[in-house]
Amino acid sequence: MNRPRIYIAGNPDKPTAPEALADLAAWLVDRAEVVGAKLASDPQEIVAARPDRVIVLGGDGTMLGVARSLGSQQIPIIAVNLGKLGYLADFSLEDLKETFDRVVADAKLISRRMILGVSLPGANGSELALNDCVIHAGPPFRVIRLAVRVDGEPLTTVSGDGLIVSTPGGSTAHNVSAGGPILQPGISAFVLTPLSPHSLTHRPLVVECDSTIEVTAVTANEGTVVSLDGQRTVPLRTDETVIIQRCPTDLQLVRNPKHSRFHTLVTKLKWGQSPFDS
Questions:
Q1: Rg (CA), the chain
Q2: Residue 215 lies in a domain
Q3: Which residues are catalytic?
Q4: Distance CA 128, CA 181 (A)
């Protein structure tokens, strides 16, 4: 059997990343063909190396950044948490070493998750968002008004602090903090969650994944922005429109075989736990 081709990408801003990268690369010498091992790696270099799996050392933000940079050429990612919460980064280094043979061989462990393709004002083509596309009011923090259309049909005009359009995988991020629903990551749908709407009738809405969502700024502030995964931010001005569709490419995130499907939700976000539980 051919040895798996592995690329290791680390976050240079994590103090423990250089040591972890060196340790893992040395450990893999007899188990895989390491086709690259770098901090702050180049996505073109990753794709050119043709790895079977990309091991990302960092945290959720590191994994999102690497996946976004790969664009339409997604490769299965094993995300190792060197940060705090590590909701998407499901592995510790110890977990990875214990389960390595299985996680590189078992295709059933690859969780395919939908990605947003976002067309920004004045841009050619679309950019990716794995968690969410968020429109924020921004300074001077007056109410903004956003007209929302779905498949060309007017849906509503939201007055408030903005709007979140989330993937199911991103539903446990900004969306849930704003009162939106939690969706299982394998579901195909958009979640539209108004931010502090000035209306008691505006509630989060789940929309079919093959829809085209258009959000036009009827009234914007000087500091109103569109934010993709909290990593890419661009201004949004009055009368400009953001178009959101499902990207034809899915994120491929390798699951930790030691964990159940709801392990992270229950253990890290404490979902469903009683305040009387010890």
A1: 20
A2: yes
A3: 60
A4: 22
Q: For residue range 148-204, what is the model confidence (pLDDT) as tens digits?
A: 999 999 999 999 999 999 999 999 999 999 999 999 999 999 999 999 999 999 999
Q: Which residues contact 160 (CB under 8 A, 6 or more apart)?
A: 137, 143, 144, 194, 195, 196, 197, 198, 199, 202
> Which class for 152: exposed (0-12), middle (13-18), buried (19 or more C-beta within 10 A)?
exposed
Identify the domain containing residue 254 by its residue range: 5-113+250-268
Q: How far apart are CA 174 and CA 171, in angstroms?
A: 7
- Alpha carbons within 13 angstroms on the beta-carbon side of residue 99 total 18
Number of domains in the chain: 2
Give this prediction's pTM: 0.91
Residues linked to residue 249 through DSSP beta bridges, in sequence order? none
Q: Do 107 and 151 reside in the same domain of the chain?
A: no
